[in-house]
Amino acid sequence: MFLVALLPGPALCYNAVLAYIWFYRHRARDASCGPMSTAIAINPRHAAHDEPRHVEQASRLRAIIAALDSSGLRPSLVELPVRAATDAQLRAVHRERMVELVRWSANRASSWIDHDTYTTPATWDAATMAAGTAITVVDAVVGGSVRNAFALVRPPGHHATPGASMGFCLFNNIAVAARHALDGLGVGRVAIVDYDVHHGNGTQDIFFADDRVLFCSTHASPLYPGTGAEREIGTGPGHGTTLNLPLPHGVGDAGFARVFDELIVPAIRRYRPDLILVSAGYDGHWADPLGPLTLSVAGYTALTARLVALAEDVCNGRIALVLEGGYNLKALAACVMASLHVLCRREPGPDPFGPSGEPEPDVSALIARLQHGHPLLAV
Questions:
Q1: Number of domains in the chain
Q2: What global pTM score does this model have?
Q3: Rounded to an integer, what distance in angstroms lies between the CA atom of residue 220 and that of residue 234?
Q4: Is residue 301 included in any domain, yes or no?
């Protein structure tokens, strides 16, 4: 019953109540995941893209797979076969010169595209397969063969811009998949929710002028890469389809519950997407070595439950998660497993880490500014 415990104040927010009721009702009805199941797709080429001295290393996905194998949940999931993204699919969001730079760099023994984004001779296969894994889960969810899905990928993607790999990211996996949904599958509108601790600057740049994509990002501020200000709301046809929530350091379960219930959920309801995608970064967990936020495993699970319930309401349940950050291996694995349990309508069980125990800053001023100033929220 941790969803209730996470909510701020003596009264439950309306959207949180709906998420709570939805989760436990569907857990009872679909305890075995059912014929319309939850799918996973795992990047099979990730492991050789590895720099053990770097926080973004192969042990991240290995830890998730080990937790999945020991959980007993894996037999209940549909495992999707994966193919690499094509050059055309990559170039639908990235410039040719950038794609070729990654290809060239991956032909070297080892190389660095920038100060924190490395390549190895296996990087081209790993990066194209990561983007292809994201496409795979979108194909399955939009096609109706599964109810929802999680793409377990690395390298991550949300910092990769139209013209540059950066921030551990080679290609923007979720953006490639979203563009494929729009241009290849006939989806009319996509909402992307990014709850990584870092702003998804690449995803924002790719869709900043595109009104077919609503991009919502919660992120710590100030923090790398320094983008994601409230005033960044889109341009041209995309004016009003970017929603940034830069959060002060220390925000955790209670603050996230408020910004989701009072900002993100209402914005998505008004936008009415046909598909929800989630840049699922778990480096906002309080134990993460890179992030200054204080989310718990239970807090992340509550956010995922809100989004799954929202998808049921606005887009026939069509939602897919794509892994981004998370660098404490045990916390990362616990967060992913809890999110998979929510997707599969199963109770996640107790939070193995518990709450941070730290006081949170107030997010009321941020909420008030966006409620009165953002085109999707102002009345």
A1: 1
A2: 0.93
A3: 20
A4: yes
